[in-house]
C-alpha cells in the first residue's frame, strides 16, 4: 500500500531537489526515499524505475524552464526577446543545475508522458516564434534553433564548470555573445554550396 500523501508528483519534485543538490547522476531511489522519509520500495508505486524518475525530472524541468522563458519574452521581439529568452535559460540553469542537466541528458522518456507534457512542445513553439521575428523560415529556423541551443548550453555548462578563468567577467562575455547572435540572426547568411548535403 502506498504511503499516505506520497504521489508521483511529490516523488518527482523530491528527485529534482536531490538533483539540484548533488547532481543528476547522483540521484538514486535511496536518496529520494530518504528525503521523503520512506522506504525505497514505497517509491515504486509511483515511479517504475530510476530512469522513469529521471525522465519525469526532465519533463518537470522542461515545463518550469519554458514557463520562465514565456514570462520573460511576453510582449518582446527581436533583440529584446533574444536577451530575455537567453537570460531566462541561463538563470534557470544556474538556479536548478540538476534539473537543467536532466533537460539535456539522453534519457529515455515514456512517449505517453512526453505527449502529455506541455513543456517540450511549448519550448519549441516559443523558440520558433522568437526566431520568426527575425524573418527566418525553414530550413534556417531549424539551423538557428540548433545554433542558439548550442550557444546557450555551451556557455552555461562551461560557466558552471568554472571554465571561464579570464579576468573579464562571464557576464560581460555573455552580453557580447548575445549582441553577436542578434547581429547574426538579423543578417542570416544565404544557403551555401554545402547546404544540399
TrEMBL record:
The keyword Transcription regulation applies. Keywords: DNA-binding, Transcription, Transcription regulation. InterPro entries: Homeodomain-like_sf, HTH_TetR, MT1864/Rv1816-like_C, Tet_transcr_reg_TetR-rel_C_sf. GO terms for molecular function: DNA binding. Signal peptide: none annotated. The keyword DNA-binding applies. Residues 28-47 bind DNA. PROSITE patterns: HTH_TETR_2. Residues 5-65 form the HTH tetR-type domain. This is Transcriptional regulator.
Amino acid at each position: 500500500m502506498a504511503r499516505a500523501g506520497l504521489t508521483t508528483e511529490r516523488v518527482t519534485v523530491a528527485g529534482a531537489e536531490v538533483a539540484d543538490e548533488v547532481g543528476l547522476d547522483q540521484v538514486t531511489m535511496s536518496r529520494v526515499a530518504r528525503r521523503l522519509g520512506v522506504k525505497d520500495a514505497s517509491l515504486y508505486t509511483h515511479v517504475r524505475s530510476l530512469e522513469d524518475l529521471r525522465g519525469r525530472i526532465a519533463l518537470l524541468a522542461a515545463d518550469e524552464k519554458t514557463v520562465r522563458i514565456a514570462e520573460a519574452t511576453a510582449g518582446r521581439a527581436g533583440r529584446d526577446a533574444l536577451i530575455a529568452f537567453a537570460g531566462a535559460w541561463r538563470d534557470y540553469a544556474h538556479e536548478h543545475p540538476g534539473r537543467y542537466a536532466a533537460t539535456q541528458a539522453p534519457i529515455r522518456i515514456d512517449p505517453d508522458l512526453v505527449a502529455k507534457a506541455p513543456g517540450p512542445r511549448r519550448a519549441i513553439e516559443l523558440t520558433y516564434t522568437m526566431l520568426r521575428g527575425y524573418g527566418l523560415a525553414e530550413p534556417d529556423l531549424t539551423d538557428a534553433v540548433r545554433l542558439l541551443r548550442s550557444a546557450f548550453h555551451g556557455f552555461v555548462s562551461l560557466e558552471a564548470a568554472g571554465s571561464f578563468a579570464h579576468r573579464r567577467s562571464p557576464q560581460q562575455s555573455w552580453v557580447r555573445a548575445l549582441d553577436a547572435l542578434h547581429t547574426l540572426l538579423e543578417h542570416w547568411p544565404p544557403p551555401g554550396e554545402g547546404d544540399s548535403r
